[in-house]
Amino acid sequence: MEFTNVLVVKNAREHGVNNLYVTNGKYSVKSFDKIQADCAGLVAYPSLINIHDHLVGNWVPKGAPSRPYSNTNIWVEELNDSEPVKERDKYLKKPVGHLLEEAGLDLAMLGVYKNIFSGVTIVQDHVPRQKEEYYQSFPIKVISDFQQGHSITGKNWWGGDELSEEMKKTKGKMPFIIHMAEGSDDLARSEFSGLVDQGLLKSNSILVHCTALTPEQFKQLKAAGASIAWCPNSNIYLLGITLDIDTVLKLGINTCLGTDSTLSGSTNLLKEIIYTKQTFPEISNETLFKMVTENPARALMLDTYKGMIEQDVDANLLLTRMNKKDPYENFVTLNTCDIELLMYVGKPIFGKIEYLKYFSWNAKDYHLFECNDCKMFVTGHPEEILKKIEKKLGYKKHFDYLPF
Ligand SMILES: [Zn+2]
Asked: Which of 181, 226, 257, 273 could form a disulfide with 205 if both were Cys (CB 3.0 to 4.6 A apart)?
């Protein structure tokens, strides 16, 4: 298949109008069929990677009864008694240790749709590692090769092994993900030395939040080659502060932008990008673009997709409108309704119905709906999950990330 005359944004440095070819789910040097989509005036980006989410936590509205917190251990304790979680748990009764039963999968799928509607085809779901079937259940990639800890203070209260055992199991070949120093008080500040003492600061560590870290600790983090997952909207909502991003960027730490769940964070990753640009206008558009493409690809040690458009890699494509001439400026203003087509490994996941004619497709596999006068499709049936939730609750429930 061929996308003609499209502004191809290969990465944060190279872009130009060109034809883009996809063969057998990979970007190719030419097309081997006669299928052509005229994409003049549109922009082709690599699809996005959300480094930090809790898929079953994507309930609304946000819930943080006594914010701002000096550390989020207090929030975690309050959370189960908060109104949104009590409402969610009318549907999801079991804890997050095993999500393969129907209600858990439905809610995780809802979280996956939040990501799909913001151009994401790869997401890190920070929960105790689930059985492999869980990761096979979704139409996009939910990272299965990882080990994790909840936090240094809370350890793995939600399931999983001892933190040092989790790190040992990575064998340095997959990421180890942990919430780090999410707060501003002594307890939050103490977490970094706990991390170092337990041998958990390594090049495969992804440290989420890091709001209490000092410049000296950021230097240590950089020297170890670790990555940071940054969720500014969640941080500022829960804590009233976020990390020292100037120092982080000056040091050249591999920094990735994530949403967290909607219980504390942005509606979706596109909204997180817009929020970050508004809050930190000094961060360049290209830097923000890297934070949701090549930086998380590196942190997550992906092998078939590096968050760029390049030959012979997975055709994970985010095709959008061009509202601004500069493609990176355009990028930081995108909304769900600007998405023309989202592909995961060459398969159409979400977009305008007119693109489906280029693929062999079966109407029963898609939900068709209207969004801002555009006729859209999405893979699978999020509307049925919503119906099941509403039936259980006994009233209508609106999730702002669902565009129907
Ligand atoms: Zn989190």
From this structure: 226
